[in-house]
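Appendix B. Raw example, untouched.
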Amino acid sequence: MTAREVRAAGFPEERVRARARHGAAEVFPPVAAYGHTLYGACPEDRQAAGDALDEARLVPPVFMPRRLEKLIELGREPLHDDVDLTTTIGGFTSPLPLFLSAFGSTTAGSGDLAVAASRQSARLGVPMVIGENMVPVHGYRAGGEGACPSALLRRIAAYEEELPAGTGGVVVQQSTEDADAEVWNLVNSDPVAGRLLDSGRLAFELKVGQGAKPGLGGMTVTGAVASADLADRFAVRDVLDDAVARLRCATPGTFTEEILCQQLRFMRSNFPRARVWVKLPPGRDVAHAAAVAWQAGADAVTVDGAEGGTGWAPRVFLDQVGLDLAECLHCIGPPAGCLLATGRMWEGSRAVRALALGAAAVGLGRAALIAVDEDPERGLVRLAEALALEVRLLISALGKYEVDALGPDDVWTPQHPRAVEQRRVEEPER
């Protein structure tokens, strides 16, 4: 995949590309318009209505005792620069409440763009997740030891080359097909990952599901030759209106409460030096599943809202299946462990709303790919810089100076208890 080939239907692609080009400058109106143009809350200036998380409002209080505490600590009035964004993400230290989401085994997730994203996320010092089915599709070391590294190993090597000491980490996701290929065993014993293990910066993520296709496994389109090669590892179906294209289907895996606990115990026992992550789909029992995962020892639980996921998926799933991210966060409530949120993240206000509703950090998926497509050298770095500036501005405006000081009271939605009570007072039962 080459530059300008990434497209994202229904996603603010051009705004993300502008941030990849100009970075933090895109947080503000054009400098040339200063003093000549009036900006306000006109419909054309506002972000188009999205899901419930987009439609919620951040609501600063009038009285800010935490700002007073910060003023006394600093001996001066605090500014947005004083907001500390350092975050612990699933056992890893990160300078931002941000991580690179899983891309999977498609061309976008395993080619040069993904390697560029790995490099830039390492420069930022944020954790990186490598998605499912990389090894079953692309192999590990074709030709044996010393051969050309696979897509998965290229991404790990690119990340390691740029990673500062003491920050970040690599998370390797595993699906049912990955388990058959013993991906975690391969990575855990590979010298390429040795330095990550030695420094406590390697994690394995058990994939229970994803936002784009909750209840289904991964799906991609393959040609006739590739389909024949993959038929022994995946279900391949001839359901597409194309003489060559085939639908490659991964299995979703079967989980019960006991199976999930057993899997996590297995991970802890077999890979004692690696962190343990779990990725959940936006199911109706997501709160219970997250609680089970934390109780079984998961270092992080990632919840992928129905708006998350970039893979090939049936239209009906993209439109009609799964809870949106806001509802997932409301269902989970105050998390019992490290909760990570993904789904349409690209700018600061959505990130801060997710953080206020319980997430420790948010993941960049589609936005990261678009940014590195726009600029393979610095696009993701600039995008993250713009997001970080917005996050600092917003947290400061809420009268707080650490990420974990955010809470549900900072977010106002139609379902907010105070909003419900206000409507009850204004519209008494007749």
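End of appendix B.
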